[in-house]
Amino acid sequence: MTPSMRRQQILDAATDYFAEAGFAVQTRELSRRIGISQPLLYRYFPSKAALIDAVLEAVFLQQQQTNWLDTLRDRSLPLKERLTQFYSGYVQGTYSQRWLRIYFFAALANFEFNGEYVKKIVQSQILTTVCKELRHSLLTPEQIAGLSGPIHPREIELAWMLQSSLFYGMVRKHILNAAPQITETTRVSDAVDLFFHGARGLYPALLAELSGAPKRP
């Protein structure tokens, strides 16, 4: 086995092990499961902390491709269709049982990685893109020009409502053993419909608040 293959073998086994038992486990048991010695494991990962960092990076960061937000930004398609396509792929490709268990175990261990993932990936990339596309789809160029500054926190919280509902649906399925009794395709489509039509009704009032214009009585 080549060094790169051995490293990947250890990384895959560690991801499965941490997803099953959490991060407080011993590397001795991991080595036993793989069938290698601890010194060999530490040849590839010099400490347990280094192994955990590699697992978190592989689970949360390496799955994102450079063009993964292109679907959301493709303005040749209606925004509701883009949201449905993006989240259908994202939910199925991201929120697996292993991903969710690693995510919650990392949060319980007070790792900073979870917060960084939420801020740098979910909020700064996904939700900010959703908000920009909502502005483009629901507002006129004149209205957009009247908005000063970056995306407002209230807009981000609006986008979180869609993201959170889809996340929790997969938590019900993979963690709570209370899977929705409809297909994932239907659930994503319904969630996007509810979110999009709600946003379309809310944005005029939101625009007035963000631009400082007086609200209608």
What does this structure look like?
The chain starts with a helix and ends in a 6-residue tail after the last helix. The chain has 217 residues and is an all-alpha fold. The chain folds into 2 domains: 3-59, Homeodomain-like (Arc Repressor Mutant, subunit A, Orthogonal Bundle); 64-211, no CATH class. The longest helix is centred in the C-terminal third of the chain and has 28 residues, at 184-211. It has helices at residues 3-21, 27-34, 38-44, 48-60, 70-73, 79-94, 97-108, 113-138, 141-145, 153-174, 184-211. 74% of the residues lie in helices and 0% in strands.
Structural class: mainly alpha
Question: Compute the gyration radius: what is it?
Answer: 21 Å
Distance between the termini: 72 Å
Ranges with pLDDT <50 over ≥5 residues? Answer: none
* Largest sheet data: none
**Extended strand count:** 0
Q: Give the number of domains.
A: 2
Number of helices: 11
User: Proportion of β residues?
Assistant: under 5%
Multimeric state:
single chain
- Residue-averaged pLDDT, rounded? 90
Proportion of residues in helical segments: over 70%
